Structures are given as structure tokens and as C-alpha cells.
Amino acid sequence: MNSSNIPAHFCIFLAAAIWGLMAPIGKDAMMHGITGLDMVFFRVAGAAISFWTASLMRALLTRNKPQEKFQEPRVKPPKRDILKFAGAGLFAIVCNQCCFTVGLSITSPINASIVATSLPIFALISSAIFLREKITLKKILGIGLGLSGALMLVLGSASAGNAKAGNIAGDLLCMASQCSFAIYLGLFKNLISKYDVVTCMKWMFTFSTLMVMPITLGDVTSIPFAEIAPVTWAESSFVVFGGTFLSYLLMAKAQKVLRPTVVAMYNYVQPVTSAVVSVLAGLALFGFTHALAILLIVAGVYTVNSAKTKP
What we know:
By secondary structure, this protein is an all-alpha fold. Helices cover about 75% and strands about 0% of the residues. It contains 13 helices and no strands. Helix 4 (about 110-115) packs parallel to helix 7 and helix 6 (about 135-160) packs antiparallel against helix 13. The protein is globular. The chain starts with 5 loop residues before the first helix and ends in a 5-residue tail after the last helix.
């Protein structure tokens, strides 16, 4: 870490903390009338509208004004790169959010957040494939530690009779979301670095909205809107604007500067935030298995990130 990277580290730390809060808040909303597919549509479509609004507001406010030196260069992407944003949206948003949100709706928020800490392991594998980052023996050891922690959590959910302790299908869906996001971090690092954050996100969420509409609109149109409590709508709004618009904005800002494995490392902020809120709200149980799983995954992440990598 150097002084020029500190803002990027702060951005990804804040994004991870918001995602940690999103797990218990989103879980509570999905226990009171909102389904997992409803939440996916709200998140993706709401973020698309938010990023296009931000883009238009920025254009109006900066019209006829010279661009400041500290501002990101705003370059209009060619059609070829706009189509690449569709691929980025598929992995970073559609697969990631569909798997995580539906998984969260059937497992505990603590389990969902613990599984999210496995992202650095998958990011390392993705970086090795797409960015040619060398995998050393120490990194393999870290991968083994992290995956053993995730496996312990999944097997614990399989034998648990209490929904608050977790659900194996939900855990596996949350793990699939991390695999998808890791592919995005490695495969589209260069694309995201070429353009400003708002441009990247508005196109990614636009394509993602078109992709999720066929599988989510049926659920959304059948929502009993009048029966949903105001608190549930407030929780859903936090998931859309905090857990999606703001957090993706912060994440993309950090991704432009930091390596994929460093961005992914901050994911273990999530279970700490989620565990405290979930237990206090009575949404989940925290036991010895959860603590040991966190220790194994964090140990794996630390081992991976402390391994030396040749340029």
C-alpha cells in the first residue's frame, strides 16, 4: 500500500462493509414478502437507472467546463467495448447477483457472508488463467485452507436441521456467485481500467437488466405491493442503492488501481459485519463451525496474499 492507493483501499473496504450489512438487511426483506428473484430485478434495474441518472447529471454539470486534472478521463467507448460490457455484466452482475441473492434467500446471512470470503481464492485462480499470475506452492496451500473452510461450512449446513444455521443449496449458490465475480475480476480488469466508473457501470447494468428481465418479471408482477410493509421497502431500497449502486461504484473505483487478488481480499470484512448484525437481529445462529470456517478462510486468504509473485 502506498499513499496514492489509500483512497482505493478505503473504497473497497467501505464496499465490503456495505455488502456485509446487505446480507442481514436483504435477508429480512426476503422474509417479509420479497422473493429472491424480486430482489435481483430491483437491484439490477434500480442500479441501471441510478448509473444512467448519475451519467446524465454529470454531463449537465460539466457541460462546457474543462476537465480537471484529478478527474478520470471520460472516453466514449467504441461499439466493440460496449459489447464487452455485456460480458462483464453477465459475470459481475447477472450470475453473481442471481446466485447470491437467491442463495441468501434460503440460507443464513452469516453463511452467505462467510462463503463470500472465498472470493480471493477464486480470484487467484482467475488471475492465473487470465492475467498469467503465477501460482506458487504457498498459494496452493492458501487455496487448500480457504476451500476447506468453505467445505466445512457447506457440510455443516447439510447436516443442520435449523434454517438459521444454513442451507447447503443456498451456500453452494453463494459460492457460485463468488466464482462468477472472480472470473469478472480477472477477465475484464483491462476493460474496466480504460473507462471511468460511471460509464462502465451504466453499460454493465443496462445489459444485465435486459438479461434478468425474462426470468424475474413474472415474479415482480405478482408482488402484492399493498401488503408489503414500509420497513421491507426501506430494506429493499438499501439493498438497491447501498448494496448495489454505491458499493459497485466504490468497487469499480478500487478495481482500476488494485490487483484482483487485493480487491478480493477485502471480502473478509463481510462476515464480521454480517455476523454481528445477524446475531443481534436474531436472523442467524453463530457457532463453533462458523468461527472455525472463518479462521480457515482468512488463513487461506492471508497465505495467498503473502505469497510473493514475480512481475
